Amino acid sequence: METNQFKTHLYQTKGLRIALIGLILLTGCNTMWVKSSSSPEELKRVNTYCQSLAEQSCAGLMLNLLQESICEARMTTSCMNGKGWK
Fold first, then answer.
1. Could you report how far apart the first and last alpha carbons of the chain are, in Å?
2. Distance CA 43, CA 12 (A)
3. Is the dihedral of CA 43, 44, 49, 51 positive or negative?
4. N or C: which end of the chain has fewer CB within 10 A?
5. Total domain count for the chain?
6. pTM score, whole prediction
7. Are 64 and 23 in contact (CB under 8 A)?
8. Range of the domain at 32
9. pLDDT digits (tens, 9 = 90+) for 30-78
10. Are 83 and 50 in contact (CB under 8 A)?
11. Which residues contact 77 (CB under 8 A, 6 or more apart)?
């Protein structure tokens, strides 16, 4: 019985480490958004909207921390591209 608990603990610890490493790597990614004839205020407004939309969309999917971070990054990128930002 103790062996199964130990294996479960190791599995959970490994998953947490992977999620934290992924989160650290994703937060280090800084995308430079470009759109002709746009202002910094427009970039801030659209980026805030897209990030908020991505957080709301990914939050209800019951994902682990790493999957949620990846989901949010992809959704934000998709939203920004859809708004004309490259």
1. 54
2. 39
3. positive
4. N
5. 1
6. 0.65
7. no
8. 2-82
9. 678 999 999 999 999 999 999 999 999 998 788 888 888 889 999 999 9
10. yes
11. 31
